[in-house]
Each structure stands twice: as structure tokens, then as C-alpha cells.
Amino acid sequence: LLASLLACWHFHTTSASVNIESVPPHVVEGENVLLLVHNLPENLSTLVWSKGENIRDNAIGLYTLSQDVSAPGPLHSGRETVYHNGSLLLRNVTRKDTGFYTLQSLNSHEDIASRTTIYLHVHTSNCGCPSTCAQITIESVPSSIVEGESVLLVVYNLPENLRAFFWYKGGIVSKNIEVAWHQIARNTTGFGPAYSGREIVYSNGSLLLQNVTWNDTGFYTLRTLSRDLETELVRVQLQLDTSHCGHHPSTQPTVESVPPSVAEGGNALLVVHNLPKDIRAISWYKGAVAFKNQEVARRKIAAKSSVLGPAHSGRETMYSNGSLLLQNVTRNDAGFYTLQTVTTDLKVGLVHVKLLVDTSLSVCCNSLTSVQLMIEPVPQNAVKGDSVLFLVHNLPEDLRAFAWYKLGHNNQKFKIAEFSRVTNYITHGPAYSERAVVYTNGSLLLQDVMQTDAGVYVLQTLNRDFKTEKAYVQLHVYKPVTQPFIQVTSTTVTAQSSVVFTCLSGDTGVSICWIFNNRNLQLTERMTLSPTKCQLSIDPVRREDAGDYQCEVFNPVSSRISLPVSLAVTNE
């Protein structure tokens, strides 16, 4: 079958809409990688994968859609599986698997409908664990500074095929907090709204901050863009040494990791200091940004009880003083944690801490220790109409079967599909949709996601000893936001009077920030924000308040900025 198809293809028709994504983007020897296919043409008859760009001699396998049958090619090693949606799973990869992979699709007339190539790089392993040698890292030099000094954010392992890089002041990527960008080909640098005049960008990616102030503290994000338009984000936290700052008493909340570095399997306590007395609520988030789907737990002081969030794994305990205990930590727990405080006057504060996990006695080097079943949503936040993959890590080696469920009201489980390794067969459940694809490695792909797909999904595994294990993942589906606009009580006001700006948006569940003369608005004692930040009041107005005002609305997947509204201030 394969030989006859390779001999009779016609090469006069092409299409350029298909794209392929490597999941995970970085794969290490011994791991599995899924070459996930998006936007396949309709009315196809056959899908063919090859190693390299020569289809005829290097075919791995094909899938005939009309007959729902697959056939191996000359380069099939027994570790590859071709799925009906075109995706290719490579198991237990080695360095020899590095190279180009080409997917070619044929229509019913045996004409080529699409031809797409992706390059896969397999990294070497270190004690069976992923090597970090190819990952971008940022080091703060010096690691501890005082106000008025300079600090260099040194970048290591910048990609060789780099097209451009961008620096942002904050934990997210947003145009209004862009500090600077650098284009490699032209060796040119540009500056964004968050540029203060004290930053210097170097062509190796590093960023120098001169004469730092307290306003410079917080997260900085580096975004890289490769020549094949792949992006990568790396964050670093800048903190000032308060031991030499007598004029800045440490009354602001801080978080300390005890111990500073914890071994896998141990416990870590994130101790909160200087919690405000007028505290109303406390929330913990896994990551550098306070996104709802990354919430671990929150506590309302009046209620004297904690509510668990989507990122709660069952191993975290939140105390009334705000501290967070993490038990039996794994390498996946490493990284930034964010504490959000809300006071009785609705002022929101953010404090970050980085948890370091010592992997020198890692489970990857100890075959007697089991690893936890985990689900990673790719991408982290889903856009309506896009696809999302629930990528499963640490599926039991002695797996007998697994099943996917979606939780309904009252935690009622609705089965999507079940896979039996004994029969190597997938059975669809009542909650199955044709937009869902279940892979034998446990992962679940949801295509063309809708708002009704949002919710909690459960993966349940059964091993040969009939022991079960569950893992949960929450899916949030967002719509791209629309452009807001500003209403103002008057565009021309006299000094010492008042003015109110209102940011109007047709979207729900969005966050709002205000921009003044192309920079983040620095609130003064004369300015008041409404609880949702949709209204900005200035009372009394001064001459320095004259200028352009804008508001930005954003959710985890998109942001839009309003057109500017100019405020003129006249004498009394």
C-alpha cells in the first residue's frame, strides 16, 4: 500500500495552511514527543510522515483516512504512532531522532494537499532528567543591590537563530510595559513606553539598569523571537537590599522560603512577614502572575477559612498569617509563587518568592521512588476557536488503562473516553465530542474549543495491581478582548477642580490599567480608582495632570488599548 501510494503521487498542488507544534517544545533523550498538527485541509485521503524532506525514501508511516488504517514505512522503528488528525507520536526518543520531519497530505485525487516540515532537536539527558543547558537563563549581577546602584541582568544561552528580543517591566508581555527591543539583523534597538532613560540594552540580550529606585523592583520578562517565529519567555526578579535603607523601613509584606532550598520529597514553608493590619483577603498563586487558573488558595480574613484554587495539588496548606506550606515537593513545584493581598480599602499588593528545589537526590536517579501523575495544558490559556492539549506527564509504566472525565455540577463525572492497554483500544464515553482526540500516551487534545468546554477535567489511571491515581486540570476559555474607549466628564478643566475618566469595555472578566502620556499611570494621593479600576478620579486637578489618558483592558490571552483622550488644565 505504501509503495503504491509513493509511486503515483502528483506534485502539482500545494497548500500552506498546515502548521506543526512540538509538544513539549524541548525534548530530552528517553522522553516522548508529540508533533501536533494544526489546520489540516478537509477531504483528505492519506497522511504520510517521513524523516527528512525526501518522502519516497524516508517514509515513517502513513494513515489512510477512508479505511481508518495505518501502515509502517521503511524508517518505522516501532516507536512511532501516526494518528488520524495527522499528529505523530515519537516514544523514547534518542539523539538519532534529531532532524527534519515532513508531513504530506493527499486529497481524494491523490494530489498533494499540503506539505509541512518541522525540525526536532533531542537534547542529551542528565541522570535521566531534562538538561537545562539549552534553556535561556537570566542572572542578576550583583545579586543584591541598594537604591542608587546599577544592576546588570545577564542573559545566558540566547538562541543561535535569534531574530529579535524584547524586555518588559513586569511578569507578563504587554506593549504598554515594554522597556526595549533589539533586532539582530539590523543591529537596531528601540524603546517602549516603560523605558525610563536609565536602561541600556546589549546585543547579547543583557539589560543594564542604572541608578535603580524602589519603583524598579519586581519582575522583568525577556521575550525572544527566533527566525522561525518561535517565542520563549524568561523572567527574573529584581529586589533591593533593605538592610542599608534606613529611610525605607521594611513595613511592606515580604515572603521568605524556609529552607531557602528544599530537597525533592521535603517540605517548604513560604513565611509571610509584615502582613498589613487592615488585611481583607490573601491569595497564593503558582507563577509570576496572579492569573485565576493559577490560584493555589485564598483566604478571607472575616470568614476565617481557606478556599482551594485550580492550582491546588492537595499538598498545600494555607495558614491564617498568610504563610503557605508545601509538602512532599517535586521538581515541578520549583519556580515563582505570588502572594496577593487585598486591604479593607481594596488596595491590592503583590509579593513574589522563588522556590528552589534541590534535584541532586532527584527521583530521576532513584528508581525506587515514584513520580506524581501530572497534566500540563498547552497552551496554558486557551482562546476560543483554538486547540488545547492536556499533556500528561509520568503515566505509570505498569499502566493497565486510563479514562478521561469532565466534572459537572456537584462534581459529577462524565466520561469522555477510556483506553485499555490490554486491547490497545479507545472507547468513547457519553461526553465524547468529535473535537476530542485521545492519545495512547494519556494526553487529550480538544480542538476548536468553546466556552462550554471550560471546566475541570480528570484523568484516572489504573495499573496492573488495580491501584488508581487521579490528576486534575482546569480549562479556562477566553475570548480576545475588544478595544475599550474612555468617557470623561470634561476634556478641559480648571486647576483645583475635579475630573472623572471611565473606561468602557464590552468584555467581562477583564483587568484594567491606566496609561498617562504613553506610560503606566503613577497614582498620587489626589487620584482614586474604583474597585474594578474602571473609573479614575482626580481631585483636585493640577497643571501637571494635563496630557493624554488611555486605558488598557486585558485577560490572560489578549490586551487592547483605547484611543487617547487629552485633558487640558487651565488656570483658576
Structural summary, described in words:
There is one protein chain. The protein has 572 residues and is mostly beta strands. It has 1 helix and 53 strands. The strands form 13 sheets. The chain has a 6-stranded mixed β-sheet with strand order 24-32-31-26-27-28, with no helix packed on it. A hairpin with a 4-residue loop joins β21 (218-226) and β22 (231-238). The chain is globular and about 85 Å long. Mean pLDDT is 82; it is low at 1-16, 126-133, 242-250 and 361-369. InterPro entries: CEA_cell_adhesion (IPR050831), Ig-like_dom (IPR007110), Ig-like_dom_sf (IPR036179), Ig-like_fold (IPR013783), Ig_sub (IPR003599), Ig_sub2 (IPR003598), Ig_V-set (IPR013106). This is Carcinoembryonic antigen-related cell adhesion molecule 3. GO terms for molecular function: protein tyrosine kinase binding. Keywords: Glycoprotein, Immunoglobulin domain, Signal.
**Rg, Cα atoms, Å:** 27 Å
Strand fraction equals over 45%
Report the CATH superfamily of the largest domain.
Immunoglobulins
- Report mean pLDDT, rounded to a whole number: 82
> Major sheet: order of its strands?
24-32-31-26-27-28
Main pleated sheet = 6 strands, mixed
CATH class of the largest domain: Mainly Beta
Kindly identify the CATH topology of the largest domain.
Immunoglobulin-like
The gross shape turns out to be globular
Helices, by number, come to 1
What's the N-to-C terminus distance? 88 Å
The beta-strand count equals 53
Summarize the amount of helix as a percent range: under 10%
The secondary-structure class comes to: mainly beta
What is the level-2 CATH architecture name of the largest domain? Sandwich
Write down the oligomeric state.
single chain
